[in-house]
Design goal:
Length: 514
């Protein structure tokens, strides 16, 4: 296998008539998916797509999105996945950073694409081409070549584009398929957007391993439960936010027949103990596998289902082909229960961040534990996560080294939210931080200093935020101040801000005595 196009073609030959993508009203086989991918290949070729060109996919999970991704591999292009719920600033950033040759969208774009060199096409505009009509090019990508770019937010700045290679994606997908024990007759329910790394991993499992993929009518408890009742999936891949909503009082999960499910998988953050307990009760006939990884590593750790009840707070053990270490600042191994940085060694380390060599160098470094005297380019990924390992070899997450938040299962850069708030023109300073929340992961709080205190209207700022931010970026609470508390070095004192916000919230929620 040289590239993902070849791997997909092998899948089609093996399971051509098997259902590939199921929605609430349609089922498409792998053979049909291959034909639709050919349609997109022709459209890309007509638009002048060359080897290593980027194709920006502003799409929701769909049969057409799967075909659009595959077609990129068939044309030696690089699919760039971005969430269709993003707003105009995210689109502008993606266009500037990626410089795509083509933009494909299923929903209306939130802003214009002014570059005349960029072809913009809607899925409905991609015609069907006659079967057998050949293309003048064939894929030549090597296992080490870029295969996709998925956006993720770092601790500071705008979202970065994580680049994974054909070889990393293929072998990572096969490895996960094996340790999860997936079967040919499985039906995989995925309510996670493919533009997020975990959702993308589920799509890859379909395209490269031949597992049927079920897209629910809506990524809500009601849509998920409807899909379970009507389509009887055997595997359900979710995130902490999704499982939290599913286990909430408004969800119909308790009255849903879940007997078809044999396996639940989770990643994207730590499941609250109460949520995990409710999952084990509600899905008592299914195994639960907890996973840990970053967009930059495909996957790092997993906790086998027979250990979930015994070690519910653990990240588990390293996946096959990977070495996970807890390192001190000097690069030496930490002792058991000693906190240090979680470092991913071995397979599946990404190629880096697209056009961001500085950020790449900060996280991808030479393996500090590689044998001395051996010529080796083996990279290690310094995750920025703080954790520890116990005496039995189980890993645990403690906190982020930086201020990175996780809202609704998505990693959020406070700096990104701050910049958008300042762009409103209504505030001169913004400081964003998070408060733990059972459903959201982090409830985002924003402290702001108004540009004109007398004319400032918080509702106007909130309206601006809702027009320019995805739901997972939106502040749920605003703290309006004349100025920010500062540290002795003159920087914003975030602990002090969090204390002020906590006191204000407590006062607002306190019962009033008449």
């Amino acid at each position: 296998m040289n590239n993902l196009w070849e791997a997909f073609c092998i899948t089609v030959k093996r399971v051509s008539e098997r259902a590939a993508i199921i929605t609430s009203d349609q089922t498409h086989s792998f053979a049909q998916l291959a034909i639709r991918a050919s349609d997109y290949r022709h459209a890309y070729h007509k638009a002048g797509v060359q080897r290593s060109d980027r194709v920006l996919l502003w799409m929701e999970n769909s049969y057409d999105m799967a075909a659009a991704v595959i077609a990129c591999w068939g044309q030696d292009a690089i699919p760039v996945l971005i969430d269709a719920s993003c707003r105009r600033p995210q689109l502008a950033h993606a266009l500037e950073l990626i410089e795509p040759r083509v933009v494909v969208h299923t929903v209306e774009l939130p802003g214009p694409v002014d570059d005349p060199a960029v072809t913009v096409m809607q899925t409905a505009e991609v015609p069907s081409y006659p079967e057998g009509k050949t293309l003048p090019t064939s894929p030549r990508a090597l296992p080490t070549d870029p295969a996709s770019i998925v956006f993720t937010s770092g601790s500071t700045g705008l979202p970065k584009g994580v680049v994974q290679s054909h070889g990393n994606i293929y072998h990572g997908c096969i490895t996960v398929h094996r340790y999860l024990g997936l079967r040919d007759d499985d039906v995989l329910l995925c309510p996670v957007p493919w533009s997020f790394d975990y959702g993308y991993g589920q799509l890859l499992t379909t395209l490269l391993c031949g597992i049927t993929h079920l897209i629910p009518p809506a990524n809500t408890p009601f849509g998920i439960c409807a899909a379970i009742e009507e389509q009887h999936p055997s595997v359900f891949a979710g995130t902490p936010a999704l499982f939290s909503y599913l286990m909430s009082g408004m969800s119909p999960i308790r009255s849903t027949n879940v007997s078809s499910l044999r396996l639940l998988t989770n990643t994207g953050g730590k499941l609250a103990a109460s949520v995990l307990s409710n999952m084990l009760e509600a899905f008592d006939g299914a195994d639960v596998v907890l996973n840990y990884g970053l967009t930059e590593t495909y996957r790092s750790c997993y906790l086998p289902p027979h250990l979930v009840r015994e070690h519910p707070h653990s990240l588990g053990i390293a996946i096959p082909g990977v070495g996970i270490e807890i390192l001190r600042e000097d690069g030496s191994r930490a002792s058991a229960h000693e906190e240090g940085e979680i470092v991913h060694r071995g397979n599946f380390v990404c190629l880096g961040y697209w056009r961001n060599s500085e950020s790449t160098a900060a996280v991808i470094r030479r393996d500090p534990l590689a044998p001395q005297g051996v010529i080796s380019d083996s990279p290690a990924l310094f995750t920025g996560d703080i954790g520890y390992v116990d005496e039995r070899g189980f890993f645990y997450f403690v906190a982020r080294r930086d201020r990175l938040l996780k809202s609704m299962g998505v990693r959020v850069s406070p700096h990104e939210v701050e910049e958008i708030l300042i762009e409103s023109g209504q505030v001169v300073a913004a400081a964003v931080f998070g408060r733990p929340h059972d459903l959201l992961g982090h409830e985002i709080h924003a402290a702001v200093v108004p540009r004109d205190p007398e004319r400032f209207n918080q509702r106007d700022l909130d309206r601006f935020a809702r027009r320019n931010m995805s739901q997972y970026l939106l502040p749920r609470f605003y703290l309006v101040l004349n100025d920010f508390p500062l540290t002795t070095s003159g920087k914003t004192d975030f602990p002090a801000l969090e204390k002020i916000a906590s006191d204000v919230r407590a006062d607002q929620l306190a019962p009033r005595i008449p």
